Amino acid sequence: MTWLKKKWAGLLLLWIFVLAAWQTGALLYGPEVIPGPVETVKGGVELFKDGSLPKYIGISFYRVFSGWALGSLIAIPLGVLIGKVDVIRHFAEPLLNFIRFIPPIAFITLFLVWFGIGEQSKIALILYATLFIVMMNTLTGVLSVEEDKVRAARSMGASEWQIILHVIIPATAPYMFTGVRLAMGTSYMAIVGAEMIASNEGVGYLIWNSRLFFRTDWIFVGLISLGLMGFVTDRLFGWFGRKVLWRYGVVGSTPVRR
Amino acid sequence: MTWLKKKWAGLLLLWIFVLAAWQTGALLYGPEVIPGPVETVKGGVELFKDGSLPKYIGISFYRVFSGWALGSLIAIPLGVLIGKVDVIRHFAEPLLNFIRFIPPIAFITLFLVWFGIGEQSKIALILYATLFIVMMNTLTGVLSVEEDKVRAARSMGASEWQIILHVIIPATAPYMFTGVRLAMGTSYMAIVGAEMIASNEGVGYLIWNSRLFFRTDWIFVGLISLGLMGFVTDRLFGWFGRKVLWRYGVVGSTPVRR
Amino acid sequence: GCGSSPDSTSSKARAAENGESAGTTETASEKAEKVKLNIADISSNPVLRVAANQGIFEKHGIEAKLVTFATPAEGINSLFIKQADIAWGADFPILNAVSKGEYAIIASTGNSTDLSAKQWKLYVRNEIERPEDLAGKNLSFLRGTFISYLWDEYLSEYGLEPENVKFIGQGGFDEAYIALKKGEVDAVWVTGAAMVDKFEALEGAHQLTDMSQTKVRIGSQIIAPESLIADKPDVVANFLDALDESSRFVKENPEKVADILYKEVKQPKEATLKDLSVINWNVEFTDSALDSLSRQKQYMVENGIIQQDFELRDKIKLDPLRTVFPDRVTAAP
Amino acid sequence: MSLASVKPVASKKHTITIEGLNKSYHDHPGSGSGNGDIHYIIKDVDLVIKGGEFFVLLGPSGCGKSTLLNMIAGFISKTSGNLRVGGSDIDKPGRDRAVVFQQADSSLFPWLTVRQNVEFGLKMKKVPKRDRRVVSEQYIDLVGLTGHGDKLPRELSGGMKQRVQLARVLANDPEILLMDEPFGALDAMTRRTMQKELVRIWRQTDKTIVFVTHDIQEAILLGGRIGIMSPGPSSKISHIYDIPLTYPREVSAAEFYEYHSRIQAHFDE
Amino acid sequence: MSLASVKPVASKKHTITIEGLNKSYHDHPGSGSGNGDIHYIIKDVDLVIKGGEFFVLLGPSGCGKSTLLNMIAGFISKTSGNLRVGGSDIDKPGRDRAVVFQQADSSLFPWLTVRQNVEFGLKMKKVPKRDRRVVSEQYIDLVGLTGHGDKLPRELSGGMKQRVQLARVLANDPEILLMDEPFGALDAMTRRTMQKELVRIWRQTDKTIVFVTHDIQEAILLGGRIGIMSPGPSSKISHIYDIPLTYPREVSAAEFYEYHSRIQAHFDE
Ligand SMILES: Nc1ncnc2c1ncn2[C@@H]1O[C@H](COP(=O)(O)OP(=O)(O)OP(=O)(O)O)[C@@H](O)[C@H]1O
Ligand SMILES: Nc1ncnc2c1ncn2[C@@H]1O[C@H](COP(=O)(O)OP(=O)(O)OP(=O)(O)O)[C@@H](O)[C@H]1O
Ligand SMILES: O=[N+]([O-])[O-]
Ligand SMILES: [Mg+2]
Ligand SMILES: [Mg+2]
Known about the structure:
The complex is a heteropentamer, with two copies of chain A, one copy of chain C and two copies of chain D.
Chain A: H1 2-5, H2 7-29, H3 37-49, H4 52-84, H5 86-99, H6 108-115, H7 119-143, H8 147-155, H9 160-194, H10 203-212, H11 216-244
Helix pairs in contact in A: 3-11, 4-5, 4-7, 4-9, 4-10, 6-7, 7-9, 8-9, 9-10, 9-11, 10-11
Chain C: H1 11-17, H2 20-31, E1 35-42, H3 46-53, H4 56-59, E2 62-69, H5 72-80, E3 87-90, H6 91-98, E4 103-108, H7 114-118, E5 121-125, E6 138-142, H8 147-157, E7 166-170, H9 173-181, E8 187-190, H10 193-200, E9 205-210, E10 220-225, H11 226-231, H12 233-252, H13 254-265, H14 269-276, H15 287-302, H16 319-324
Parallel strand pairs in C: 1-2, 6-7
Antiparallel strand pairs in C: 3-10, 4-10, 5-8, 5-9
Chain D: E1 16-26, E2 38-49, E3 54-58, H1 65-73, E4 80-85, E5 88-89, E6 97-100, H2 104-107, H3 114-124, H4 129-142, H5 158-170, E7 176-180, H6 188-204, E8 208-213, H7 216-222, E9 225-229, E10 237-242, H8 254-268
Parallel strand pairs in D: 3-8, 3-9, 6-7, 7-8
Antiparallel strand pairs in D: 1-2, 1-4, 4-5, 9-10
The structure holds adenosine-5'-triphosphate (ATP) (2 copies), nitrate ion and magnesium ion (2 copies).
Nitrate ion (NO3) binds at residues 71-73, 89-90, 92-93, 145-146 of chain C.
Family (chains A, B): Belongs to the binding-protein-dependent transport system permease family.
Pfam family, one (chains A, B): BPD_transp_1
Keywords (chains A, B): Cell membrane, Membrane, Transmembrane, Transmembrane helix, Transport
């Protein structure tokens, strides 16, 4: 059984297994319900040839990336602030623990009002999906900076501002990284909701709109695209963390709590 | 400023601040876009009086609870299995890391096919939203059980099965708990998607359907209900963990990564 | 046409007139097991909900379960996944469905009238005073609906090319409302009392016209799987009969219907009452229905929305309708 | 302390016999340095540990003490050579060889009370509850934890936790105790107390002890014989000292100082 | 080791003066036991630590050693009494009082190299890069880490990390070193080496050291004077021993043993 433990053999078997299960499902339910691998590939090729799939992937990626990057940029300083200032934390914590149960999709109307039907409202929805995860991870990170580090810096003459800059932020980096990486997953999850509104392109649009014409093969193409986009960017980001942030204690493995 | 640090004062200020911000928004955008606190309370009372709000909350809670409980019950043994058996882990990990980026909402059609238009498809959607979080947390927990514990049990004569039952599972309990608790948050987030289709009742239905009639006050009632339901059940569950599972090392505080 | 219906003949009397086939259906429904039907609906349509709520389906031997979708189009899609046995909707999604599978139109709900066309209103930003002003503007359409077809016809009437405007696809009227309010779209077709009220109150926008001023008449049709029509024509006929009874109840008891809709789907009463004043569900199949279907099919084929052309007459099965309302089938496809 | 100060020689069956034992790892082919070379941790170790003796393995950090102990425990497999306990080859952990780990926190079961921890092995053997209780009481008393049976490990100090580990393995009545720097994480005062306790318990029960440490003073305080491991890689037992001092031993005794100097010199050279 | 074995008396200005110092906490009103009662950790401590001396605070675990040291460091506030360094009251941390923590892992900055850690205080003072470099080289050499400047803390052993802590605080040229069981987490051999190094560094630089430990042997090896803290609550300095032995000291010396017995007896009674 040692060959089973070899990674490539496992992966190969996995894919054979997945494809077989998929084909079986397709045969069982009929192609309009579950399109088989072949139909899906055909649908994908069709969308690829007329250029819409690459365009959709590009535009969804742009939205996910913008919302996620902006959300993280806002959430990190906020998280540090909430973590450092007790008064603000007493304000913010119950509010955060209330809002975090409200799904991004519920804000569609509100965001339309605020940000219009253009890119901004979609990016804002992704931003919202990102914000709390990054903020709460950063907050936890700030709260778990060892008191010894802060004391050491202080008795070496660091000002409060220097402590934030040179101790709190670098020490919190792994938490920020985890938060930002988890938020990336959530952003991909939110793209369908974001592109449900006022949108004529994007992978989420493809998934949602194909339902109207019952092009289940396109739905599958969309789903697989989302999964792949998420998988690839997550790996890239993990690799980036490992390479660039390793000295801050960032490890590149999969974050658990998506 | 010491009185600011008192919790109740902070909370009071917080609520005054939140209500003021809300009212300002309502005045700024007009009630059809942002209903003010008063309109919202009126809308809530209206829905409460005719019994639909309690009914909706009850039915959404039932769906969230069933999907979440079932999902956890399935995910925990699966997580243990994947964590314990290397061969299966090699199969499952890449697949999990692919699927976790696909949002529950994308499976609406598929689940309708498989589970029909009744409760089952809605519960299945919540179940899906729960499954991966609990599974991946359990998996991580199993992988981080100290080797010493397993070795100790083994040299005291425990069989592999006894090790799973008496060492792995109790040692993984805090991870399972965290996963299950985080999944509860995601379940509330998924309820809008679950009640978007083939549904006449529930808080998610209220939020989604009120858009059709432009009853933004009802949308707000729905949002606040979701937030409160999440907040309360999360606190209750945290309390349960602290009381019942403390000896397994479960702490009741808010899990970070929702 | 609108004048031909509804007549006051009760369905029972009519069934008796029509001889033994309807008669046996009647007795069968009283003795035998009720037939279960899942019916796709949307929350704002009163006819099916009233039929279920008032026991009209039950009376006709049908144990109906209403499955609520956001749009008729989604309801029609649920036929494909065998979650509904009967669905209804506008020509556009209906044609899309019959082009793809073993489904057929069993009746029209008789909406292709001037009165019903009047309910589709075009709201535009104030700077647009004449249809010609739409050139170069942003026009809203709801995805998966006939509105793109409506725009096509409307624009060509005024000599505007589709290339000269920009179409913005949207997911719902609330979205269109906000977009119009903010000036991000310049023109929106809208229907439904609740929505029309909102648009009417919108500053900076006004109603330019309504659909009755155009050549477009949309029909609304009822669709069922061909297997159901072939295997249980009597059930289908009973269903149509029940629908007719319900549509008459709806017209006669607006207050009661508004209560039912508020109670069951939370549609505000005022909105229901306004809608009811113009509602026009007539179970029939007329030339105008056939006409609107053929024209829209042509549009859909030309625009690649329907990928495989088909013979429309093969997809219209009116035998069950003829058994209950022979005089209401005035078109012969 | 009323027992005789020299242990009687125990029966043959507990003897641990090690002949030409090797343990090697392949260097990671991916890592910068090696390219699949074989790397010997332990090479050609010969050693006989007699039943009932208190044997100390002394050596610098990283020399392979834990590796050798883990092979005796059956946790890791040998690369080549012979390793027998009481005549039978060792290839997996067994109830005859109990292990006391350095980190009580990672080896005790924190969700079980002291008593439940001590009864763990018996429960795995499906001994009835009442009988388990009798045994656990006995060993909780033996290690000096009387009255603490219902506490959880987290409520105990570091020294008390190591007592729980001891009671837990003794309750299974193993023939051999394998201890890997069990007092390494304790503060100086607690460590001194625990060393005394261990000697007392060893003399009261009839066990073979293999005790790993890198503290010369601890080695001389405890060991009947001290095996010195040479620094790795390819380390072996370079010398064995007999320590015929009577128990309990005192750091301040002149002979003690003499042994200390000799062994210290061994390392300094 | 070529320096004179007795330190010259240092100037007055570094003196730490403690008079009637108290530290108390309110018991948690919510918790089962107390209901808002005041709980004294330290009560009426009087102590003068002269500039340049090596003062050891010795006491059992939990008696309040860290509490006292943290008050001198300015990390926690006193409840009442006087606490002055060189004449000025202490109310917050200052560059004149450097702290070496027990856990190097929690106090070093793991994202900075050894050199960057050592230069931290200078960087905060905005000393130019080139000047920082000169100072850090000097202290890295002093603590015996020459050549390790570009490593990260995680690449070092426990003993080396404590050397980094020492170099880091010395680079700021403080007048006082406050050390809270700095060698408590090290293994016995490394600890011995570090003790020797600390004495060497103390004699080479001109610092006052307040060193907390609960190890009698360590106290006698290091301290010019040893202040014994009574067990808490309401603990105080119950006795001060003068240890006029010359440095470097040897555990095996007869006088050493004598002091050990005396202090041990103090605790045993
Ligand atoms: N799985 C492994 N693969 C490769 N090398 C290993 C492995 N386990 C241990 N080693 C190496 O074997 C050597 C001996 O390790 P071991 O833990 O036995 O030393 P030790 O004497 O117990 O040290 P310490 O006193 O620090 O506990 C070390 O150099 C270690 O890096
Ligand atoms: N913030 C606090 N609130 C209440 N009690 C405290 C607080 N900090 C410390 N104590 C108590 O003060 C006492 C002394 O603690 P301290 O850490 O000073 O002891 P120590 O002598 O340093 O012990 P050790 O040798 O274990 O480090 C302990 O009983 C501790 O529980
Ligand atoms: O039925 N339509 O929504 O067009
Ligand atoms: Mg070891
Ligand atoms: Mg302390």
